[in-house]
Amino acid sequence: MLLVSLLWFLIVDSKIGIKNMENLQYVVEMLNITKRFKGIVANDNITIQLKRGEIHALLGENGAGKSTLMSVLFGLYKQEEGIIKVNGKEVNIDNPNTANELGIGMVHQHFKLVHNFTALENIMLGVETVKHGILQVDDARKKVMELSKTYGLEIYPDSLISDLTVGMQQRVEILKMLYRNNNILIFDEPTAVLTPNEIEELMKIMKSLVKEGKSILFITHKLNEIKEVADRCSVLRKGKYIGTIDVKSTTKEEMSEMMVGRKVSLVVEKTEAKPKDIILSVKNLNVKSHHNKSEKNIVKNVSFDVHAGEIVCIAGIDGNGQSELIYALTGLMEMSSGTVTLNGKDITNLSIRKKTLSGIGHIPEDRHKHGLVLDYTLAENTILQTYFTERFQKNGFLKFKEIDNYADELIKRFDIRSAEGSKTIARSMSGGNQQKVIIAREIDRNPDLLIAVQPTRGLDVGAIEYIHKELISQRDNGKAVLLVSLELDEVMNLSDRILVIYEGEIVANVLNKDLTINELGLYMAGSKRSA
């Protein structure tokens, strides 16, 4: 009888142990999470479970609630309903410090770094080691450099953040998490501002982190990245949980349909271009470096034309002068020499407003710095370049009702999602919806020349499909489109003619149909030049 009882106890205990082990396969469980803001349910009864040692992608349209959900996990927001478990135990995460204590770290889409601090100071910030009132910088430096070497995250510890590239700043953010011994890592749109080479490097780093025993939650819009690194993927749509799929056994088309709720064409469909008159003509343009005016020109003797009815794309590895070229064309930087004409009129020395009124639309690469006033409402941002026209003001007083009506039109047409409609503060909107506000404003002004710099950065596949159609529609309606993109697929699929820039010079000016992606890569690397 004693032996039977002992065997029964061992069986029951074994079952309990197995059950506990099953529960502990999840390092994080967000169960039935609901988060509300004024006028919107951002997360509606969502359940997400992260397995130990996996990369779990979180996919959804702009405004689907992905960043909000991760902000709940990191303690930036507090859910109204639902519970969070870490390593099988229910926890109350009321601020980021609590999240860090639980081993949870987060790299935000817009980095949280102090720009006038060094990389090392940013990594230490908040968890400084002090002995007898003296900051132990040498110990911190040693630990940071060891982590840097272990994970292949080379940085310049004594460089100011303001002097580092975006890719290098991201490494600092990752090292911040590792320095705090975080084992649960959240990456919010980590590739949105990276070059293709930096993206490839980040994918390798994420894989190595998982091999070291970390678990990763990875927010992205890019299906190729999900297919490359993720094990499972959970899909959100309009704040609701749609499902979790195994990445290897699911196609990109199936994932995009789950995300958007309809079939999405991943191929850009367009007819052959029919270029007409020259809209933009650039002759012998030179621009000094904006970092050091005493340096040699960063844009060197650039000349090209853009015709009505064509999309011309400036392609190149980031940092080869394309940003400065666009800044000079739009008036954000002074040009050293050269001329710019629009519709035959010399606009070289005009102010930014006069260039805009001459017929230029500009979708800038930095939407926060050059595209929006973040503390203005959505409606106010839609009229930044037209508030002085008769439609929106009378005798110097703004027509607020007309402004709101106009914003509502754009919200509907461009599917801009926000908590409070036209009254929403731009800063509170998702990055993708901020981008939609800029695109809506610039396209609706009906410019003769539309300059679009990274127009689909941070957008989901449905929004990308829409923006591509809008750009092609502009072309087909006789507008000139000058596109700058770091996405090779976008360059090859959208452009009619490609200008390749290398070290500030145009090294190729070729029709898309005459160029292969391998040739494009050689031009971008400076290994080849057209005659």
**Could you name the ranges where pLDDT drops below 50 across 5 or more consecutive residues?**
9-23
Give the terminus-to-terminus CA distance.
95 Å
Per CATH, the architecture of the largest domain is 3-Layer(aba) Sandwich
Number of helices: 18
The helix/strand class is alpha/beta
User: Rounded to an integer, what's the Rg over CA atoms?
Assistant: 26 Å
Number of domains: 2
CATH class of the largest domain: Alpha Beta
List strands and helices in order, with pairings.
Layout: H1 2-23, E1 26-37, E2 40-51, E3 55-60, H2 66-73, E4 81-86, E5 89-91, H3 96-101, E6 104-107, H4 119-124, E7 130-131, E8 134-135, H5 137-151, H6 166-179, E9 184-188, H7 196-211, E10 215-219, H8 223-229, E11 232-237, E12 240-246, H9 252-260, E13 278-288, E14 297-307, E15 310-315, H10 322-330, E16 337-342, E17 345-346, H11 352-357, E18 360-363, H12 367-371, H13 378-382, E19 393-394, E20 397-398, H14 400-413, H15 431-444, E21 449-453, H16 461-476, E22 480-485, H17 488-494, E23 497-502, E24 505-511, H18 517-524
Parallel strand pairs: 3-10, 3-11, 6-9, 9-10, 15-22, 15-23, 18-21, 21-22
Antiparallel strand pairs: 1-2, 1-4, 4-5, 7-8, 11-12, 13-14, 13-16, 16-17, 19-20, 23-24
Task: Kindly describe this structure.
With 531 residues, this protein is an alpha/beta fold. The protein folds into two domains: 26-260, Rossmann fold; 276-359 and 479-531, 3-Layer(aba) Sandwich (Rossmann fold). Helix content is 35%, strand content 26%. The protein is built from 18 helices and 24 strands. The strands form six sheets. It has a six-stranded mixed β-sheet with strand order 6-9-10-3-11-12, sandwiched between helices. Strands 18-21-22-15-23-24 form a six-stranded mixed β-sheet, with helices on both faces. The longest helix has 22 residues, at 2-23. It is globular, with a radius of gyration of 26 Å. The chain starts with a helix and ends in a 7-residue tail after the last helix. Mean pLDDT is 87; it is low at 9-23.
